[in-house]
Amino acid sequence: MAIEMGVVGTHTVMHSKMSRDVGVDHSNSPKGGAKLGSRIDLHKLRHNVIDPFLYHQYVARRITTMESDELTTGATNPSSSIQVSLRHDRTLLMFVVQSLVRLMRSQLGNNTPKHEDGSIRLNPSKSKLSGCTLRERTVCDIYIYDMIPPNRSEKPSKKRIYYFAGGSWQEPPSPQHYKLCAKMAKEMTDTTISIVSTPLAPNNPAPSAFPMCLKTYRALMSEAKKAGERAILAGDSSGANIALCLVLEALREDSEHQEIDTKQLPHPIAIMAVCASIDLTRKNPDIDEIAPKDPLLTPKTIRETAKAWRGDWDAADRRISPINADISLLAKRNIKVHGITAGHDVLSPDGIMLREKCAKAGVKGEWVHWERQMHCFVLTVPYGLKEAKHAVQWIIDVLNRD
Asked: Whose CA is closest to 380, among 127, 163, 100, 169?
């Protein structure tokens, strides 16, 4: 069923060839209007100009239904170490945004990124920082940017979140990343948010960038321990991939040094992985099944970006594909793994596999799987989308509890 979204009052139209089950019962349509069942052809509805009331009634009912859906969340298997909340709601505005993204998808990422070698020095405009300031420092040749909210006292933080921004391993943090980190910094009053500017492909693929990042990780964990801070690694998409891989590889190295007490080596208390890239082989058959629903990513795109990052490493290498790492090491050190997966994201099948692997290994964590949401939908929070605001608040609440 072709869906064509329009605002009949102004004849503003957005086109999308997606097939969608709207899932709303409009059996109480006004007399004389079309009776709308659980599936509705918006193409026909848009052209019902003589009865605009019918269209606006649809919109009102759609929003009301989604409001009630927000309450129908559920946790799977209360006895599991991983608690999963399921959400199915999607607002009309998010649907419009997804449709726009799909229309623009062919124009996104056409240019090959060009960056200098090594860690990228960041210089965002003040407007992107929501009143916060960035304090720059370097740790093992990697630029670190501490997000300082306005009127924040100089007292030591209890927690430190090191944030790894996504961008296909090839782009620095976007304006949306700065806005997200600024929001977290303002609301998490006992926590400092630090953005890590990792070296980027194609100049610095994983074989050269990952060892640099691992060295910096060790230094940052030692730094946090000396400061009495509880450290958390967080990231989205490719950034979440790096965060997971750093912790898992460091734990693997520790496990091979039996001559020292590895329990004394510092590691984070938790990882927050949002729409993470988990398996760079991209062989999961569910990827192609979800592809028609994904408005942003395609199987071709994620395979190309994975190839750019892995360099001459095998795609299954545990240092770039955390699904192949020893997940049980996280449980042994009591490191929690939290995460978000989205139903209309081709990366979600691998993310769900990691979540299930964590549960099997006894790793603790809280997860949300949100159907009908696109890859990294949390980054739409600067635009006021309800789903993004709820997801970001969930992230803040979970990390505040750690």
From this structure: 100
| Residue 363 placed within a domain | yes
For position 116, what pLDDT does the model report?
85
Mean pLDDT check: name the lowest of 59-68, 168-177, 276-285, 382-391: 59-68
Q: How many CB atoms lie within 10 A of CB 54?
A: 18
Spatial strand order of the sheet with 159-164 comes to: 74-75, 82-87, 365-374, 336-344, 270-274, 230-236, 159-164, 191-197, 142-148, 133-139
330 and 200 in a single domain? The answer is: yes
Report field, pTM of the whole predicted structure over 0.85: no
Handedness of CA 263, 264, 269, 273 (dihedral sign): negative
Residue 239 parent element (H or E): helix 238-255
The residues pairing with 148 across neighbouring beta strands, listed in sequence order, are 133
77, part of any domain = no
3-state SS of 334-384 is CCEEEEEEEEECCCHHHHHHHHHHHHHHCCCEEEEEEEEEECCHHHHHHHC
CATH number for the domain including 350?
A: 3.40.50.1820
Same domain, 38 and 161: no
44 falls within a domain? yes
* Number of domains observed in the structure of the chain: 2
Check whether residue 258 and residue 333 sit in a common domain: yes
The reply to whether 87 falls in a domain is no
In this predicted model, what pLDDT tens digit does every residue of 274-319 receive, in sequence order? Answer: 999 999 999 999 999 999 999 999 999 999 999 999 999 999 999 9
